[in-house]
Amino acid sequence: MGDAAQSAGLQPAHPGPPVGQYLGRRLFYRLAVVALPSLIAVILVGAVGLWAFDTLGRQGGAVQAALQASTTANSLAGKLDNLVTNLDQLTIPGNQYNALIYTAGRNGVVSDTQALQALDLSFAPETRTIQAQLVHDLQGNIADLDQLNSANSSNLNARYQIWTAGLRDRVLHSDTMGHTLATGWAAAAQGKVQTADVLFVWGRAGIFALILLAVGASMLSTTLFTRNIMRPIGRLRENMERLANGDLTVHTAPQAPRQASRDELEALEEVYQRMLLTLRPLILHIQDDARQISSSAAEISATAAQQDRDSNEQATATTQVTVTVEELNQTAVQIADAAASVAAAAEQALVSASRGQEAVRDS
């Protein structure tokens, strides 16, 4: 075919740059575009999930700290209530004072005060001032209570006077502050639980929304990708059908130089168009040669037919001559037979004449 093209003075179309590397790169790019929304959605879902878990973890820690603080404040307030009740009985003049009861109550208050001081109040930083004030008041009240406990036992009114002179009111005030803190911290814990519930609901809704968005984006990108694939496939199939029917005309406009937006099938279509442009002049030249050969073959066939007709006429003439010769031969045979008959008759006549002559001589 190359020799035929050169003999016809045709030059094949200049082949484009190799497309193997380009096709691989474009296919990877297309697949990446299709997978990109899902990848982004997975990243976003992971980020939202991490944020939600981190926030819920911090909320859970805050709820635990608030519940611990509320429990500690309630315990402290309860022990202060018991201490006030016991001291009300122990300090009444005439009643026997029991230092063991006081010491047990006092140690419980000291233990809860230390626990209160060590609390983590990051869940409610606005209560740190009240906490510090309560701890300070309790430390002062414990010192005064120790003084009450060490009062002269011979003076029955000494402990009663110390207790009722203002110490009882201060302890009750600390008790009220403990109850107030316990109530506030319990409310803070409940608020943190509600916040965690809201965050959980919003986080779950956000994850579902991102999943739906990812599915929609993936479907859209897949649809666009499929359309971009099917369009050049349809054009290529149509051109191949026309080629199969003998139509070598290029029905699509020549493609512009490769751009970043073109896909691999469009590049394949461009290669097909270049191949068609290369094959068309060669096939047209072959068709011209075939027509010339067909015309020469027709002339040769006509000449052969004429010669065949001439041969038939000569054969007919030869047959007629043969028949004539045979007829002449038969005529010659008949003449020879007649001559033989005539000779026999002559010989018979000669014999008869001889006999007549002999008869004449004898007579």
Radius of gyration: 66 Å
Note poorly predicted spans: 1-17, 254-261
Could you state the order of secondary-structure elements as H and E?
A: HHHHHH
Shape: rod-shaped
- Name the average pLDDT: 77
Calculate the terminal CA-CA distance, rounded to whole Å: 117 Å
Briefly note the structural class of the backbone. mainly alpha
Helix content: over 70%
Q: What is the tally of helical segments? A: 6
Biggest beta sheet summary: none
Beta strands, count: 0
| Fraction in beta strands | under 5%
Structural features:
363 residues; 6 helices; rod-shaped; mainly alpha; disordered N terminus
Verbal overview:
The protein has helices at residues 2-7, 20-90, 99-117, 128-149, 156-244, 264-362. It has 363 residues and is mainly α. Helix 2 (20-90) packs antiparallel against helix 3, helix 2 (20-90) packs antiparallel against helix 5 and helix 3 runs antiparallel to helix 4 (128-149). It starts with a helix and ends with a helix. The model is unreliable at 1-17 and 254-261 (pLDDT under 50).
What is the topology?
Layout: H1 2-7, H2 20-90, H3 99-117, H4 128-149, H5 156-244, H6 264-362
Helix pairs in contact: 2-3, 2-5, 3-4, 4-5, 5-6
Concise overview:
By secondary structure, the protein is mostly helical. The chain contains 6 helices and no strands.
